[in-house]
């Protein structure tokens, strides 16, 4: 069975640009959570979606937005990129909202120059 | 607020035993997870505790004391491939469930 997939793997953008990151959860999983991991830190919660609805949002500015599609895949959008947005963006899927075990995808490494 | 503390870095020798501690002050506690993360890779699930006590899984064991806000991950018979970061994460329920991570403990296993 395929695990959580994310695209692209790596991305380089300049300040002020916009970026869209994509995530496909494990088949049958209905919940997707997004995390930002800055180098040397633990992942920080950004969003959680379950059954296509936003269930929770972390302490991130409105430049960050997300959505979940009918097939449960998800997109994370970041507008007006700042240097500080450079990080590994992780997507995790689980059967239910915040389920017992969250399976992480390989992540998208975003570099903002 | 939610606060999770774990040591930044630890070193150990191949074949030895190492214990990585984690203390937390959180509201809405609903379980504690340990993840392993190799450099540049995604975290992978190691263990889950929701009740007090020890959970054993092969070379890895995890302990939880909810009254003390304390957990540890015990790694036995260390191997070189165990060199990685170990993340302590608390699942909190604040209207919905999410994981709150510590900064991670980087473990270096030497021959």
Describe this protein with a few key phrases.
heterodimer; A: 113 residues; mainly beta; four-stranded antiparallel sheet; 0% helix; globular; B: 111 residues; six-stranded mixed sheet; five-stranded antiparallel sheet
Tell me about this structure.
The complex is a heterodimer of chains A (113) and B (111). With 113 residues, chain A is mostly beta strands. Chain A has no helices and 11 strands. Chain A is globular and about 40 Å long. Chain A starts with a strand and ends with a strand. Chain B is an all-beta fold. Chain B is built from no helices and 11 strands. The termini of chain B are far apart. Chain B has strands spanning 3-5, 9-13, 18-25, 29-37, 44-49, 53-57, 60-65, 70-75, 84-93, 97-101, 105-110. Helix content of chain B is 0%, strand content 62%. In chain B, strands 2, 4, 5, 9, 10 and 11 form a 6-stranded mixed β-sheet that branches. Classes of the chains: A mainly beta (113), B mainly beta (111). Chains A and B meet through strand 5 and strand 10 of A and strand 5, strand 9 and strand 10 of B.
Concise structural overview:
The complex is a heterodimer of chains A (113) and B (111). Chain A has strands at 5-7, 10-13, 19-24, 31-37, 44-50, 53-57, 64-68, 74-78, 87-94, 103-104, 108-112.
The topology string of helices and strands of chain A comes to EEEEEEEEEEE
Largest sheet of chain B: 6 strands, mixed
Helix/strand-derived category of chain B reads mainly beta
Oligomer: heterodimer
